[in-house]
Design goal:
This protein starts with a helix and ends with a helix. It is elongated, with a radius of gyration of 26 Å. The strands form three sheets. A five-stranded antiparallel sheet has the order 7-3-10-9-8, sandwiched between helices. The chain has 338 residues and is an alpha+beta fold. A hairpin with a 2-residue loop joins strand 4 and strand 5. The protein contains twelve helices and ten strands.
Length: 338
């Protein structure tokens, strides 16, 4: 374990390097921070930190920079996440409150996160596998043509057109709508197939073919939409950090184009707590020079999806973590109220 003094020296190095983008020397540290010890002691502490792999000397510079291991310890020993100011919180609320539907909520969240953190923002759509049914609507478009509208508790709306094997009257359609909703409203998507398995048998013989077709379309919709969807924004922010990527920014950009990679980065939505992956902790080689800060969001206590940011390892971790957490909280409130 590091002594508290050496931890203070490491904190100071991380803060200065993040702020100045320049390797940090012992003289600068003693001038900028009240470490309470001589420059010689600070030099000894820096030598010990370097020996243990928490900081490194780039090229022939006299200064030191944090390593992935150094950032990891800094994040693990953070005293607290930097809170947002009142104007920042109001701006988040006002911006997100104007959203008209789920696509708009996700789109606004991506833009907001990218602006607040000046990193790449990634927002996962609420997963249907973790959602519940709010309502199923059936609308008659023609004697044998019906529109199915599926609405989730997170505000997600899915529509399907159904060509029925025979005409269905308004009364029969209303009956199907009522019976269907009585079984599935408030229930998890995973439970729906079992809940409606015998529903067609309860209808008159002449309506069973149409009821079965409607139910089959509903179940197909549930299966299709288990595929996870993401929205990404602020990729241009990476161009501000060109010197933070040792060789080229291309591997990072290529990795960000792969949805499977991003979903793995965000992690499982059921792990709703804050996760910070630094440098080589990211399994994808193209992202070894980046850090990912992610957290779950949801309409209740349970997370239905994740959101987060990707940026260089030289990032303002307390500020980024504070912004990500605050935005997730507001998105959760909006979903709960929608």
């Amino acid at each position: 374990m590091l002594s508290e003094r050496r931890l203070e020296v490491l904190r100071a190095i991380v803060q200065d390097y993040v702020g100045t983008e320049e390797p940090v020397g012992s003289k600068a540290l003693t001038e900028r921070h009240r470490l309470g010890v001589s420059p010689a002691t600070v030099r000894n502490d820096m030598a010990a930190l370097e020996e243990e792999g928490f900081i490194a000397q780039p090229h022939t510079s006299a200064g030191r920079i944090p390593t992935d291991k150094g950032y990891r310890l800094f994040v693990d020993r953070l005293a607290g996440v930097k809170p947002l100011s009142s104007p920042e919180r109001r701006a988040i609320q006002n911006f997100l409150d104007g959203a008209v539907d789920l696509d708009d909520v996700v789109g606004r969240t991506v833009r907001l996160l990218a602006q607040l953190t000046r990193q790449v923002a990634v927002v996962q759509y609420p997963s249907l596998t973790r959602s519940t049914v709010r309502h199923v609507e059936l609308l008659s478009l023609a004697p044998a043509r019906v529109m199915l509208v599926l609405i989730t508790d997170t505000g997600r709306v899915e529509q399907r057109m159904i060509d029925c094997p025979a005409p269905i009257g308004e009364n029969s359609l209303a009956d199907l709508r009522a019976r269907l909703n009585s079984r599935v409203v408030g229930r998890r998507f995973a439970d729906v197939p079992q809940l409606v398995s015998d529903l067609a048998d309860s209808f008159e013989q002449e309506d069973r073919g149409t009821v079965s077709t409607v139910l089959a379309t509903l179940l197909e919709t549930l299966v299709e939409e288990t595929e996870e969807r993401l929205m990404i924004g602020g990729t241009a922010n990476l161009t501000r950090f060109g010197h933070d990527f040792p060789l080229t920014i291309r591997p990072v950009l290529e990795a960000l184009e792969e949805q499977v990679v991003l979903l793995k980065l965000l992690g499982e939505a059921k792990d709703s707590g804050m996760t910070v992956r630094i440098g080589h902790e990211n399994a994808h080689e193209g992202l070894n020079s980046t850090s990912v800060v992610a957290v779950g969001y949801g309409s209740g206590d349970e997370a239905v999806a994740k959101l987060g940011v990707v940026g260089p390892t030289r990032m303002d971790y307390p500020g980024t973590m504070g912004a990500v957490r605050a935005v997730a909280r507001y998105v959760g409130q909006i979903l709960a109220e929608s």
